[in-house]
Amino acid sequence: MISAGTLRTIVGIVGNVIALGLFLSPLPTFIRIWKKKSVDEFSVIPYVATLLNCMLWMLYGLPIVHPNSTLVLTINCAGAAIEICYVILYLVFSNGPKRFKAMLLFLGDLVFVAVVAVIVLIVFHTHERRSLVVGILCVIFCIIMYLAPLSVMKMVIQTKSVEYMPLSLSVASFLNGLCWTIYALIRFDLYITIPNVLGLLFSITQLVLQALYYKSTKRQIAERKLKGEVGLTDVVIDDSVKVSPIVSSPKIEEPTTNSE
């Protein structure tokens, strides 16, 4: 019979693999940015927010803060490294106010986590106190991140279309939340349980919306294609004008029309 510790490790490894896939999902966005040498209207906020989240969980997973959290530490180290690469690419291919804002947010992340680490390690001297302080911060920032897709879900309900809420991301988010919820419950960890249960509920809601609006989305896309084919007989298209594709991140990011 498999022990609880072994089962927790297996679930945690599966969770690591799924979470890594979610961290890598914005890669097409940055390949596009690399090719165009421009960030266009993409926002840096989802990436600096994810970076902050990863760095806080890295701090939480340290043996001197919360022992026996190796799998939490490993995946968030990987996530932080990936997000740093995204932010650096954003800085390289942005300019003016966008670059300045991205740099401020990036430095703000580093300073905030450094200050939290110093305070926690100097002021608090037990694992329980350190875990409490860092765990509460992790939960707060996780909840803020999970609230981000609410605007997209609202748009889905209003338009009756899931075109901009990819099914693959909804399924991956569900599996990720499920794995880490099970991981946290096997050897109960309140601070991992709370955000992942919330994430699981949000992803289930997304899957329900996928089921409800799948047919209407297909119908809307077909109607647009039909209108486009009809319009081609009457409209001369200027090759210099191209429509930017929507590229989703784990946070289901929408390109914004506001300047950074």
Structure characterization notes:
The protein is mainly α and 260 residues long. 74% of the residues lie in helices and 0% in strands. It has helices at 4-24, 27-36, 45-61, 70-93, 96-123, 127-147, 150-159, 167-186, 190-231. 34% of the residues are buried. The model is unreliable at 232-260 (pLDDT under 50).
Summarize the topology.
Layout: H1 4-24, H2 27-36, H3 45-61, H4 70-93, H5 96-123, H6 127-147, H7 150-159, H8 167-186, H9 190-231
Helix pairs in contact: 1-4, 1-8, 2-4, 3-4, 3-5, 3-6, 4-5, 6-9, 8-9
List keywords for this structure.
globular, mainly alpha
| Low-confidence parts | 232-260
Order of SSEs: HHHHHHHHH
Largest sheet: none
- Net shape: globular
Question: N- to C-terminal separation?
Answer: 56 Å
Structural class: mainly alpha
Binned strand content? under 5%
Secondary structure: helix percent: over 70%
How many individual helices? 9
Whole-angstrom Rg: 21 Å
Q: What's the overall average pLDDT, rounded?
A: 83
Number of strands: 0
Task: Kindly summarize this structure in a few lines.
The chain has 9 helices and no strands. The chain has helices at 4-24, 27-36, 45-61, 70-93, 96-123, 127-147, 150-159, 167-186, 190-231.
